[in-house]
C-alpha cells in the first residue's frame, strides 16, 4: 500500500504534535501561535474526509464535522471556513464521510492554489497518511 | 431575570404555606425537596393572569429545540457554573405558563420548519416545504400558489401601524424567519437563482419579498445571516475573500434596501452593528454572514465579527419600542437545529444557551404587563437522554451509574448519555457510492476511548443518515405576560398564532 492508503496504526515515530481544528485560527484566517509554530512540522489532526470529487485522487479535504454533500460537486455548497487540504503521496483510500479519522502529515500554512485542481487552501497536511479512529 | 424572579417572589410573599388545620406533621415536612416544591405551589397559587391586551409580542423560536434539548442544556448550564445541573433553571424554565404543541403539518407526521413556522405566524397548518400559503398550494408550483396566500400576524401588525422585526442566527431568508413575511411554494427559493424553472412566472424569491415587503412600511429591523441571497453573483462578498453573492438577476438587494429612504441602513459586521445609532429611528438590515451566522461555539472566531443573538434581540427591542403603538418581533435561535442535524449535541446545547440568554435579555428590557413573550420550538429532533447516569454526571459524557460504574450496553461497550436515533454519528456505515448492500455492522466503537465532551464530538446514532432528522414529538410552548395563561394544555401549533392575534387584538372583528 502507498503512504496515502488507510493505515492501521499511528506513526511509530511518535514525533507528531497534535493540532485540533479549534486551535487552527484566532479569528477568520489568522492562524494561532500554535499553528504558526507547527508549520513545516509533522502533526496529527482528527476530522472527517469530505466526499471526494473523484474516486481516484491524491488529495482530500479534512473537515471538523462530516460533510454530507461534496462542495466540489455542488456549486451551491460552501466549504466551511476551517477546512484542511490533505495531500498524499499516493491514491486515497476513500472513507465514509461520517468516519472519524486521524491524519498525520507535514503542516503547511498560507494561501495556495493547487496547479492541477485550482483548489485554494490555507492549511494543508502534506505527504500525509491517515487511519480510522 | 431579576425582574422575573422578584415578580414571582413578590407574589409568593402574600401567601403563607398552607397546612391542614389539624394535620399531623408529615415525616417529610422538613425535607428540602418537599419544601422547595411547596414553595413552587405557593407561587402557582399566587399567580394572577394578566388579562389585558398585549401591546407587544415577542415570539422566540428555538429551531429544533426539543424538550430533551432544553433538559440537556439546563444541565449543561448548571454544570458549567459548577452547580447542580439537574435542578438548575434556565430563563425559560421560570416562565409561568406552559403548553405542549402538536407539530405535525398538513401532509407530514414529522414537519420541516416551513409549515411549522407558518402555523405560528398565520394560524393554519400547511404542507411541508411551503411558507405562507394554504394547504392547497403545491410544492414548487409558482403559478398555482398565487391565490393561496395567507396573512401573517406580522402583516396584520403592519396594517395596524405597529413596528415589526425579525432576528435569526440562520439566514434571514430561512424558513422560520421567512414565515413572518414570505409566501412561497418552496422554502428553498431564497434567491432568484434557486427558483430555477419557476423563475419569471410572477413569484418573488424570499430575499426580494423581505426587502420589498408590501405590508405597512416594512420591517424596522431584520437581522441575521444570508447575505449571499441579497447580492448578485457579480458582487464580491465583503467578508469572504473570493466569494460572491448568488443572485442571477444582477440586483443588489442591500442597495435596494438603503435606497428606500435616507434612514434605511445596512450593516454586515460586528463593529458596524455596535455603532448603530437608534436616535433617528433607522430601518436596519443586518446580514452578518454569507450563509447562516456562526454557531455560538464558533462565533468568537468569525472573521468580521458577529453580534450574539442576545445583542441582536436587545437592539431589535430598543428600535421597535420606539413605536408607541407596539410591535411584534420574531427571534429565532436558528442553529440549534443545524447542530442537531450534524449529530453534534455540544453545539446544539451551546446555541440553546445563547437562545436562553436572548430570552433573558427580552425579559430585562420589557414589562410583563404589556409584552407577551412566547418561547417555543418549531419541531423536535431525534436526540434522547439515555439512562441511568448518576446525578451530576457530565451531560456530554459517558453514562456512569450511581455506583460510579461506567454503564455498558449489551455489547459490553460504554455509551454516552446523549444519543441520536439517526444521523451522521451512526455506528452503521452508509452505503458507499456504487455499493448496493450494506456492510456487516461490526463492533460499536467505544465512546469512552474519545473525549465525548469535545465540541466536535458526534454522538452515536442508529440509522445512518447524512443529516439527522427532525422528530415528531410535541414541543413545549412557554408564555409570559398578557394572555400568557391561554398557553396551557396540549394545543395545535397553529393555536400559537391565535393567542398572539387575540392578545394584540389583531383579529378584532373576525
CATH superfamily caption of the largest domain in chain B: Alkaline Phosphatase, subunit A
Percent of residues in helices of chain B comes to 25-40%
Strand content of chain A: 35-45%
The CATH fourth-level homologous superfamily of chain A: Nucleic acid-binding proteins
Please give the number of β-strands of chain B: 15
| Amount of beta strand of chain B | 15-25%
Q: What would the CATH topology of the largest domain in chain B be?
A: Alkaline Phosphatase, subunit A
N-to-C SSE series of chain A? EEEHEEEEE
Q: How are strands sequenced across the largest beta sheet of chain B?
A: 5-6-4-3-7-1-8-14-2-15
Structural class designation of chain B: alpha/beta
**Unreliable stretches of chain B:** 1-19
Major β-sheet annotation of chain A: 5 strands, mixed, barrel
Q: Which structural class fits the helix and strand makeup of chain A? A: mainly beta
Instruction: Tell me the overall shape of chain B.
Output: globular
Describe this structure in words.
The complex is a heterodimer of chains A (133) and B (510). Chain A has 133 residues and is mostly beta strands. Chain A has one domain: Nucleic acid-binding proteins (OB fold (Dihydrolipoamide Acetyltransferase, E2P), Beta Barrel). Chain A has one helix and eight strands; from the N terminus they run βββαβββββ. Chain A has one helix spanning 33-38; strands spanning 17-18, 25-27, 30-31, 42-49, 59-63, 84-88, 100-113, 120-132. In chain A, the strands form two sheets. Chain A has a five-stranded mixed β-barrel with strand order 4-5-6-8-7. Chain A has a two-stranded antiparallel ribbon with strand order 2-3. Chain A starts with 16 loop residues before the first strand and ends with a strand. The mean pLDDT of chain A is 83. In chain B, α10 links the parallel β5 and β6 (283-287). By secondary structure, chain B is α/β, with parallel strands linked by helices. Chain B folds into two domains: 56-382 and 474-504, Alkaline Phosphatase, subunit A, CATH 3.40.720.10; 398-468, no CATH class. In chain B, α4 (113-122) runs parallel beside α14 (495-504). Chain A binds chain B through residues 21-22, 25-29, 55, 64-66, 68-69, 76, 78, 81, 94, 96-100, 120, 133, and chain B through 194, 240, 242-243, 246, 290-291, 300-304, 342-344, 424-426, 429-430, 432-433, 445, 450, 455-456, 458, 464, 466-467.
Amino acid at each position: 500500500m502507498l503512504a496515502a492508503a488507510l493505515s492501521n496504526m499511528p506513526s511509530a515515530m511518535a514525533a507528531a504534535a497534535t493540532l485540533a481544528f479549534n486551535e487552527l485560527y484566532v479569528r477568520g484566517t489568522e492562524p494561532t501561535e500554535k499553528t504558526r509554530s507547527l508549520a513545516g512540522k509533522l502533526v496529527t489532526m482528527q476530522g472527517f474526509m469530505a466526499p471526494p470529487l473523484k474516486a481516484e485522487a491524491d488529495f482530500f479535504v479534512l473537515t471538523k464535522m462530516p460533510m454530507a454533500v461534496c462542495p466540489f460537486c455542488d456549486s451551491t455548497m460552501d466549504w466551511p471556513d476551517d477546512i484542511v487540504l490533505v495531500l498524499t503521496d499516493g491514491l486515497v483510500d476513500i472513507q465514509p464521510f461520517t468516519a472519524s479519522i486521524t491524519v498525520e502529515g507535514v503542516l503547511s500554512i498560507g494561501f495556495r492554489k493547487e496547479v492541477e485542481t485550482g483548489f485554494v487552501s490555507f492549511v494543508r497536511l502534506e505527504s500525509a497518511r491517515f487511519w480510522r479512529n | 431575570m431579576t425582574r422575573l424572579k422578584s415578580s414571582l417572589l413578590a407574589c409568593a410573599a402574600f401567601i403563607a404555606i398552607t397546612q391542614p388545620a389539624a394535620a399531623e406533621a408529615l415525616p417529610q415536612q422538613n425535607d428540602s425537596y418537599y419544601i422547595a416544591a411547596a414553595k413552587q405551589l405557593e407561587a402557582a397559587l399566587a399567580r394572577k393572569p394578566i388579562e389585558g391586551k398585549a401591546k407587544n409580542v415577542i415570539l422566540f423560536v428555538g429551531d429544533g429545540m426539543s424538550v430533551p434539548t432544553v433538559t440537556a442544556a439546563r444541565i449543561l448550564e448548571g454544570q458549567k457554573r459548577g452547580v447542580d445541573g439537574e435542578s438548575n433553571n434556565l430563563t425559560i424554565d421560570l416562565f409561568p405558563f406552559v403548553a405542549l404543541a402538536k407539530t405535525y403539518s398538513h401532509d407530514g407526521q414529522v414537519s420541516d420548519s416551513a409549515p411549522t413556522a407558518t402555523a405560528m405566524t398565520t394560524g393554519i397548518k400547511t404542507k411541508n416545504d411551503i411558507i405562507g400559503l394554504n394547504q392547497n398550494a403545491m410544492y414548487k408550483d409558482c403559478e398555482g400558489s398565487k391565490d393561496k396566500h395567507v396573512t401573517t400576524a406580522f402583516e396584520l401588525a403592519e396594517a395596524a401601524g405597529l413596528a415589526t422585526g425579525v432576528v435569526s442566527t440562520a439566514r434571514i431568508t430561512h424558513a422560520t424567519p421567512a414565515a413572518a413575511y414570505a409566501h412561497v411554494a418552496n422554502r428553498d427559493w431564497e434567491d432568484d437563482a434557486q427558483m430555477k424553472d419557476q423563475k419569471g412566472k410572477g413569484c418573488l424569491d424570499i430575499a426580494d419579498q423581505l426587502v420589498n415587503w408590501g405590508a405597512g412600511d416594512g420591517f424596522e429591523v431584520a437581522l441575521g445571516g444570508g447575505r449571499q441571497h441579497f447580492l448578485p453573483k457579480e458582487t464580491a462578498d465583503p467578508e469572504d475573500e473570493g466569494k460572491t453573492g448568488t443572485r442571477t438577476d444582477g440586483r443588489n438587494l442591500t442597495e435596494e434596501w438603503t435606497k428606500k429612504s435616507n434612514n434605511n441602513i445596512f450593516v454586515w459586521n460586528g463593529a458596524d452593528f455596535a455603532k448603530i445609532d437608534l436616535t433617528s429611528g433607522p430601518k436596519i438590515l443586518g446580514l452578518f454572514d454569507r450563509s447562516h451566522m456562526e454557531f455560538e461555539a464558533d462565533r468568537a472566531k468569525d472573521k468580521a465579527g458577529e453580534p450574539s443573538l442576545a445583542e441582536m434581540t436587545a437592539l431589535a427591542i430598543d428600535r421597535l419600542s420606539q413605536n408607541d403603538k407596539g410591535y411584534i418581533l420574531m427571534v429565532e435561535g436558528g442553529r440549534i437545529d443545524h447542530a442537531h442535524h450534524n449529530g453534534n449535541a455540544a453545539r446544539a446545547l451551546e446555541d440553546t444557551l445563547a437562545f436562553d440568554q436572548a430570552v433573558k435579555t427580552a425579559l430585562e428590557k420589557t414589562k410583563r404587563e404589556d409584552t407577551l413573550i412566547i418561547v417555543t420550538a418549531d419541531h423536535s429532533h431525534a436526540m434522547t437522554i439515555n439512562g441511568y447516569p448518576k446525578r451530576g454526571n457530565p451531560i456530554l459524557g459517558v453514562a456512569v451509574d450511581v455506583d460510579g460504574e461506567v454503564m455498558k450496553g449489551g455489547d459490553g461497550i460504554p455509551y454516552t448519555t446523549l444519543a441520536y436515533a439517526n444521523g451522521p454519528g451512526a455506528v452503521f456505515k452508509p452505503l458507499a457510492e456504487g455499493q448496493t448492500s450494506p456492510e456487516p455492522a461490526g463492533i460499536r466503537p467505544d465512546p469512552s476511548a474519545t473525549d465525548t465532551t469535545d465540541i466536535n464530538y458526534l454522538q452515536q446514532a442508529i440509522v445512518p443518515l447524512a443529516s439527522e432528522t427532525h422528530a415528531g414529538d410535541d414541543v413545549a410552548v412557554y408564555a409570559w405576560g398578557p394572555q400568557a395563561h391561554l398557553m396551557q394544555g396540549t394545543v395545535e401549533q397553529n393555536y400559537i398564532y391565535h393567542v398572539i392575534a387575540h392578545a394584540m387584538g389583531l383579529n378584532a372583528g373576525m
